[in-house]
Hints:
The chain has eleven helices and ten strands. By secondary structure, it is α/β, with parallel strands linked by helices. The strands form two sheets. Strands 3-2-4-1-5 form a five-stranded mixed beta sheet. Strands 8-7-9-6-10 form a five-stranded mixed beta sheet.
Amino acid sequence: MKNNTRGITLGAFLAASIFNAGLAQAADPVTVVSWGGSYGAAQDAALFKDASKNSGIDIIRESGASMSKTCLQVESGSVSWDLVVTGSGGSAAAAAKGCLEKIDYSVVDVSDFIPGMYTDYCVGTDVFATVMAWNTDKYGMPGSAGAPKSWADFWDVKKFPGTRAYRANNVDGALEPALMADGVPPEKVYEVLSTKAGMMRAIDKIRELKPHIAVFWGSGAQQAQLMKDAEVDMSTGWNGRFDNAKKDGAKVGYTFNQA
């Protein structure tokens, strides 16, 4: 999958997914697990209401999407979720554990999909980027000679000394940067992540950086606030959050390279 951490909100098909022809004909309800707030409301308006109306299938939406909980349901044999919104990193990790059902592309038309926005186990629903951001007073403006340019730079604490912030509560956008920092080409990231060895490689790389991680962030608001307050020198996070932080006066820059 070429888009690695870009295009990273995807609907992952559970091992007991009911989106196949036989069950769809029975019009059983479909439980879709996503996130709450404005994101969930936007999905309702843009996707789920029309999908339910056009298919005749009731869609039950729940919050608290989690690949860990997804796998626990599958392992316990008590599956109540059908579709789960996650990132491509999370779906790759769950697929490697055998928690997801392969998508039958004989019934799912992807002829007009953006290349790289679907895999054996997930399809893309929206696009954003997990990027590395930094304090421009310390490292310079994006594109300048001394500014960070790659995930290898994020890990290079000798060339770019200072504190880091990293994602704590989800593998999405956490495993991919680690692999690219370890030399995996972007187009090979999800191939590597689809194996247990690949996941451990990413985790080991994060452990390597851990002594320099001052904060493990747990939300988009936190990642932006860390940069606004100059509490850390570099952070992973979402481009939109850093754009808003910059509008609020934060000395923050980021790059889409390897995003």
